[in-house]
């Protein structure tokens, strides 16, 4: 069944109005029409079974047949603070983060970030692209929400944003003692907000590690092998989801 997302103001009584790029996708790509059934979600965890009534160039109108709360969202909300990598790696990171159940993403401009855009407008174009990837991944895997992608910020700002998390995890290749296993074994499973910090290619600069320690974060090791930037966050998210019983057990 095809999934689409709407804002609450696009639901009127027992009718749903889908607008924007989804209209052409429904009409031209999926070739759906009146009497076809789709799922519509309102980004709050509610899923509606909808029968399409009409389609024009700007809008798909559908009638709600059934609406119910679908419990697909993890109890633990994990935010990725990702040092922006080169090329299209961020696209893959966003897509897989959403598939595995991540809650939100904060792109971070670190000391070793190679990508340097000229203006906030350029960064906003990047953010919008990453959010569209998050939305498409959410549709594909049936998420109850579209995970948020924040505007890029510097490392110090990311640390400030992470203060509200109950736990923050900072893997560092030079840490030799505190392991992810020890950290996970000690975690209180009542914790429901976790931050994961990942550096770009080349990792975090030593000054960033020192600042993170001053802010209360303790670096951990992921073992003797060096993982790529696009692997680290997904590795940690998989471990967290497994520990919280979100991977089928």
Keywords:
249 residues; alpha/beta; Ribosomal Protein L25, Chain P; Alpha/beta knot; 2 domains; six-stranded mixed β-sheet; 7 helices
Can you give a write-up of this model?
The protein is of the alpha/beta class and 249 residues long. The protein folds into two domains: 3-69, Ribosomal Protein L25, Chain P (Beta Barrel), CATH 2.40.240; 77-243, Alpha/beta knot (3-Layer(aba) Sandwich). The protein contains seven helices and 13 strands. Strands 7, 8, 9, 10, 11, 12 and 13 form a seven-stranded parallel beta sheet that branches. A six-stranded mixed beta sheet has the order 1-4-5-6-3-2. Helix 5 links the parallel strand 11 and strand 12 (193-198). Helix 2 packs parallel to helix 3 and helix 2 runs parallel beside helix 7 (229-243). The radius of gyration is 20 Å and the shape is elongated. The mean pLDDT is 92.
CATH superfamily of the largest domain: SPOUT methyltransferase, trefoil knot domain
The share of residues in helices is 25-40%
Average pLDDT across residues?
92
* Biggest β-sheet description: 7 strands, parallel
- CATH topology (fold) name of the largest domain: Alpha/beta knot
Q: N-to-C terminal Cα separation, in Å?
A: 25 Å
The Rg value, from CA coordinates, equals: 20 Å
Named at the architecture level, the CATH assignment of the largest domain is 3-Layer(aba) Sandwich
Oligomer: single chain
- What's the total number of strands? 13
Strand content range? 25-35%
CATH class of the largest domain: Alpha Beta
């Amino acid at each position: 069944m095809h999934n689409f997302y709407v804002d609450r103001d696009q639901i009127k009584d027992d009718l749903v109005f889908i607008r924007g790029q989804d209209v052409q996708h429904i009409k031209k790509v999926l070739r759906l029409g009146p009497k076809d059934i789709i799922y519509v979600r309102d980004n709050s965890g509610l899923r509606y079974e909808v029968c399409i009534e009409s389609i024009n160039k700007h809008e798909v109108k559908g009638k709600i047949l059934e609406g119910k709360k679908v419990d697909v969202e993890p109890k633990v909300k994990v935010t990725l603070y990702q040092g922006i990598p080169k090329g299209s790696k961020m696209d893959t990171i966003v897509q897989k983060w959403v598939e595995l159940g991540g809650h939100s993403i904060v792109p971070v401009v670190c000391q070793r970030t190679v990508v340097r855009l000229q203006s906030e407008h350029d960064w906003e174009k990047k953010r919008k692209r990453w959010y569209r990837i998050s939305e498409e991944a959410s549709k594909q895997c049936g998420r109850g929400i579209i995970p948020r992608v924040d505007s890029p910020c510097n490392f110090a700002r990311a640390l400030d944003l992470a203060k509200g998390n109950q736990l923050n995890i900072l893997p560092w290749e030079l840490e030799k003692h505190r392991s992810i296993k020890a950290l996970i074994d000690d975690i209180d499973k009542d914790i429901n907000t976790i931050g994961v910090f990942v550096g770009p290619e080349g990792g975090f600069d030593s000054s960033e590690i020192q600042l993170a320690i001053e802010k209360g974060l303790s670096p951990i090791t992921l073992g003797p092998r060096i993982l790529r930037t696009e692997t680290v966050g997904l590795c940690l998210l998989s471990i967290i989801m497994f520990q919280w019983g979100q991977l089928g057990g």
